Fold this sequence. Notes:
It is built from 7 helices and 12 strands. By secondary structure, it is α+β, with helices and mostly antiparallel strands.
Amino acid sequence: MGSNQFANQCRLSEGSDRRAGDKVYSCTECQKCFSNKTHLTRHMNIHSDRHKCSECGKRCHSRHSLTGHRRTHSGEKAFECSVCRKRFTQASDLTRHSRIHTGEKPYKCRQCDKAFNWSINLTRHLRMHTGDKPYKCSLCDKGFTSSCDLQRHERRMHSNVRPHSCFYCGKQFATVYGMKRHVRVHTGVKPFSCRHCSEEFVW
Length: 203
């Protein structure tokens, strides 16, 4: 990529008071932002055919990433957990999994000191502080902090899909929570009790 072409791919925020770590270089293809040119250049590979999977067409940001992705097609799982023997296609997946056993939580929130074992969990948590809800429902424009919450909302509010069935009567539900709550009608389980009189309730 030539210097002029690269300049077109970068956009540096105005002003000289930017702090280290500010994400000021943005991709002109998808508007994702980065704190330095090297990360942006690496990211730009996903918009080219430089590291493209010949089987499914997925574009990766590096040759190493493409090699790991190809294992999803071959089924090869070269990385094994020394504790539980679970195997993974990529070393990064094994690293993340290992934190289940070690309890390591390297991603810490600077606002409330809560810690997380995965960076994505920290990203979602930070939205609680900022109020950012980047996932918008296309039907009612309601915003959500995570794609999972958006998908759950769309199933419950805007879809007739009911993938969860009651084992006892076959009644179908949009969410696991709804199905589990219904099952108590059959089992008689009453998990909630009054702290004053100990009377129990289904929900």
